[in-house]
Amino acid sequence: MKQFFFLFSCSLLLVGCQTEKDRGGANETKQPNIVWLVAEDQSPEWFPMYGDSTISLPNLEALADDGVIFENAYSPAPVCAPARSSIITGMYPTSLGTHNMRTHAPWRGKGNKPYPNLDIPSYSPLVPNGVKMFTQYLREEGYYCSNGPKEDYNFQKLAAAWDESSKEHHYRNRREGQPFFSVFNFSVCHESQIWARGKDSLFVDPAKVKVPPYFPDNDTIRHDLAVNYSNLKRLDDQLGEVISDLKEDGLYENSMIFFYGDHGGPFPRHKRALYETGTKVPMLIKFPKGQKAGSRDARFISFVDLAPTVLSLAGIAPPKVMQGVAQFGPFEATKKPKYTFHASDRFDGVYDRLRAVRSERYKYIKSYDTTLSHALPVKYREQMPMMRELRRLYANGELSEKQAHWLATTKPEEELYDLQNDPYELNNLARLPEVQDTLLQLRSVLQDWMEQTNDLGGIPEADLIAKWLPDGDQPKLPPLEMEDKDGHIRLLTKKSDATILWKTPQDSLWNIYTQPIPNTTSFEAKSERIGYRDSAILTNS
After folding, report:
1. How many whole angstroms separate alpha carbon 171 and alpha carbon 134?
2. Which side of the chain, N or C, has fewer Cβ within a 10 Å radius?
3. If we measure between CA atoms, which residue out of 334, 253, 324, 259 comes closest to residue 47?
4. Active-site residue among 17, 80, 145, 189?
5. Do 44 and 281 touch, CB atoms closer than 8 A?
6. Catalytic (active site) residue 80
7. CA distance linking residue 99 with residue 93, whole number of Å
8. What does 156-215 look like in DSSP terms, one character per residue?
9. Segment 303-357, tens digit of pLDDT
10. Which residues contact 76 (CB under 8 A, 6 or more apart)?
């Protein structure tokens, strides 16, 4: 029986039984190893590879020398859970129903109600047909997929997605010779660390940091900026350990390594804002064998492109349901994106719907409630000294007009910025006669995108929940059916896009079902899909 399981596992995983010279030796398969190094809450403006010399980040600078610096990488949402739902599916949050921050948050609050002031439960949106976590496709082709420690996809994760997802995960836990896709997430530079590490050692002098023009220049502002720079050094040290592991194992040279931030920076007017400071992210990609090393690339890359790009690099055709395009690999799209699209909706317990489109030169932002301030009263953010200081200065009338704009009690219905001449987005051109053609054109592009992608933001969240949870709970997938024919068991589900999983009684990891199982095998099986509870367990003993 053990011999059977070994052979069967090899047939499913295709390349899993190819060998390496040693556990950490260079991968001999044709499928590339792919590593993601993900920084939370960071904008490009503080990194040396984007021109800031305030602090040295030697590991990232060396990675940039070996790779490509992307100058126009974007998140479709300026906050983590909606952004991560896009990363893991290749879809826009507004199409998935994951546009609100957060939807799936069972760890917050009692009675399954994460936000006491809102009568909404923690839930997983019922995503469009065919949407899966893209790592499932990698696992089906033999990849070892690991992630940690953060998930936060705005829906209940699926067992098919990861071989391992935990603080202890590592590509070294794979089978010998198995190609891998591993995500290392670093929270040391998260928004919360601005106040959590506010009294820790600083690695830069606050007097020497650059204060952007949308912030006042005082000790509180400078200190929080210095804390962020110091956290970037901690980030660089931590991700340097992963790079060191890859080099020690002889895998660095031939691995694809991505570094990126999960959305814009941790500060007010950054995180949760549709300005460049909230949506533009740092991104580096190191290709195998020094390809394109030391170059820069100005193409638009959105998070919706990451899933199809990784699949393409692994030799897998991206599913047609994905809204992003493959930027590299054998399935690279010949037509590159001309725009990036962005959305913000509910942040914790506060609703405010905005949409934006960015062209090569201009940014257009549409607000659906002008009575609300851009500076929403998000309780989490109010813990930051900088945020409290901005509130105090605004109340006392001590901010300049441009510094006060974000904190104003109302906001314009439309904003248009010339990013070439106004990179900080301080001069709203929306009412100027000479740019009305640009305004109308971008307004039309944004509206078309919203219609084509079935933007769900215009539907009240309570109505979406009532549709997705008709009985007050996630619907349950129908039971699996089993056919026993010619000595093999075939598993079937009435939900065509559900994923069938199976495992032996002694196994803790669910396998993705791809072919009939010998009827002499003892196993358990179930099906899963985003937005549904798993089907009942089917057993064969």
Report:
1. 18
2. C
3. 259
4. 80
5. yes
6. yes
7. 5
8. PPPTTS-SEESTT--GGGSPTT--EEEEEEE-TTSTHHHHHTTTSPPSS-GGGSPPPTTS
9. 999 999 999 999 999 999 999 999 999 999 999 999 999 999 999 999 999 999 9
10. 82, 83, 86, 92, 93, 94, 279, 302, 303, 304, 340, 341, 342, 343
